[in-house]
Write a sequence for this structure.
C-alpha cells in the first residue's frame, strides 16, 4: 500500500512539474511572439505628396513636402503602430518640381502665409475599432478630421489616400489669394481663372519590426 501511495505521489509531482513547464514554455513563446511582432515607423522613409487642381478643366499640379517630423510610436501590427502618431510638416519644405523656381515661393507667400499659424501643418493619426483611419489635421488654426483610405502591402508598407477640402479648414480666403496671384497661370481655354478647393493627399509609410 505504501508503495502505491509513493508511486501516486511521484506521478502527481511529475505531472505538476510538467504542467508548470508547459505553461512556462507557452508563456515564453507568447512573449517572444509579442516582441517579434512590435512594429515601429521608419521615419526617414515616410513621404507625403499632394495633387492640387487649377483651371475649369481641373488640370493637376503635383507636389510634396520634403520634411516630416514624427513622434515615434509602436504597435503589434503595422496599422496599430500608427494609432495616436503625431506629426508636423514645415510648409517651408514644399516642393513642386517647378523648373522656373517661382511656384513654391508663390504658394508659400500667397497661400500658406495668408493663413493663421501655418508655419507647420500638424496632426494625429487615429485608428478606430473598425480599423478605419483618420487624421485630426490642424491647418489655418483650425482642427478638422480628414478621413483616409489605406492599404497594407508586404506587411511593412502602408499607403494612405484622402481628399482635403480646404473649406473645412476655413482656407478659402487663402485659396482666393493664391488664385489671384497666379492669374493667367490658372486660366483655362474658357478664359476663367480657377483654383479648386479639393486637394488629393497621399502618404507612404514604411515600418520595421523590433
Amino acid at each position: 500500500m505504501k508503495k502505491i501511495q509513493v508511486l501516486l505521489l511521484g506521478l502527481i509531482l511529475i505531472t505538476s512539474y510538467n504542467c508548470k513547464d508547459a505553461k512556462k514554455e507557452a508563456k515564453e513563446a507568447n512573449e517572444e511572439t509579442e516582441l517579434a511582432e512590435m512594429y515601429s515607423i521608419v521615419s526617414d522613409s515616410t513621404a507625403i505628396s499632394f495633387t492640387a487642381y487649377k483651371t475649369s478643366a481641373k488640370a493637376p499640379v503635383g507636389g510634396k513636402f520634403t520634411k516630416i517630423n514624427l513622434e515615434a510610436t509602436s504597435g503589434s501590427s503595422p496599422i496599430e503602430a500608427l494609432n495616436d502618431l503625431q506629426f508636423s510638416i514645415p510648409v517651408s519644405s514644399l516642393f513642386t518640381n517647378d523648373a522656373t523656381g517661382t511656384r513654391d515661393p508663390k504658394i508659400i507667400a500667397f497661400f500658406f502665409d495668408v493663413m493663421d499659424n501655418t508655419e507647420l501643418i500638424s496632426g494625429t493619426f487615429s485608428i478606430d475599432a473598425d480599423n478605419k483611419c483618420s487624421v485630426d489635421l490642424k491647418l489655418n488654426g483650425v482642427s478638422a478630421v480628414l478621413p483616409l483610405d489605406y492599404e497594407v502591402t508586404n506587411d511593412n508598407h502602408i499607403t494612405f489616400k484622402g481628399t482635403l477640402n480646404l473649406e473645412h479648414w476655413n482656407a478659402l480666403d487663402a485659396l482666393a489669394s493664391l488664385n489671384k496671384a497666379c492669374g493667367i497661370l490658372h486660366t483655362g481655354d474658357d478664359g476663367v481663372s480657377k483654383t479648386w478647393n479639393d486637394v488629393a493627399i497621399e502618404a507612404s509609410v514604411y515600418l520595421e519590426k523590433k
Remarks:
- The chain has a mean pLDDT of 88.
- The chain has two domains: 1-36, 40-209.
- The radius of gyration is 27 Å.
- Residues 2-36 form the longest helix (35 residues).
